[in-house]
Sequence to fold (353 residues):
Amino acid sequence: MPKNKKVLITGCAGFIGSHLSEACLREGHQVYGLDNLSRKGTELNLHYLESLQSSSFHFQKLDLLKEDELYQFFIDKGPFEWIAHEAGQVAVTTSLEDPLSDFKSNAQGTLHLLEAIRNHSPKSRLIYASTNKVYGELRNLEVVEEENRYSFSGSSRGVGEDMPLDFHSPYGCSKGTADQYVCDYARSFGIEATAFRQSCIYGTRQFGLEDQGWVAWFLIATALRKNITVFGNGKQVRDLLWIEDLCSIYLKCWQCEEFPKGQAFNVGGGKENTLSLLELFGLLEKMNIPEVERAFGSWRKGDQKIFYSDNSKAEDKLAWKPATSPEEGIRKLWNWINDNLSSIEKALKENPH
Fold:
């Protein structure tokens, strides 16, 4: 067990940020959390973290776009040993409606954070939550349509880090810009920074919506007896990664003897943990989870027909592999949703701040 660290987590009240904050607190680290509390569910996640009653959790409401306030925070509270950057706009559909706000949240906010680190916490180990959307439509990979899913032709292990970057949608552009800034600050300024190009992360305390967190949204909609819209034909495939498995790779990476600065890692469930939307519905039926009415809509811009990560690099350099199967994770998520249904319904009705 490493000695207690001073950890900064941006977006600490979001889905991933709240779980990562909890994981660090349970290991005895000092956690400084930043969040502007703009997304639905963040108040509930913050209350959950505060309910842990840990004197090691320090929260400040702060927007990364307010650079003067961010720099002053680093001066007052820093420097930090470990940093996870989880703050940002998370949905392709929202980026298409408001590209400027999407850019500010993802690209400009990240640059402000990098400058704060460069000037006030240069020895930090930064992990940036990037996305598989930086690879675009994967046009150079042959895709085969099967009865209930799409597949890569041949025996592909999935998408590796050598896949050319091909930003699609404003969201892909803003996240991809931030991804490349993080890698370049390692090259240009020697900052210990790396990017995790994450696939579909799912788990408890995820207040999923149609445009983000699809597994959680389908289960929440089912529990609330709401209709579900499937965009496309339902054969699109993703690899699912349980939230606690994601937290474990952050901790492993931070604790590396030699931090992989300037590198990117594809982090997902991998080939063994893939599901299409149609296969998810079949799994829910197998679990005796009640069916709700489904409609099919047009494909969304920037939506990949299939994506799953080749985790070989993470397995080799970070000694990490996913441990939770989709069946186990979905059962845990379904149980959590049913135990917290009134709070979830309230969160989804609330307007963002």
Notes: The CA atoms of residues 9 and 84 lie 5 Å apart. Residues 6-349 form a domain with the Rossmann fold fold (CATH 3.40.50.720). The two ends are 39 Å apart (CA to CA).
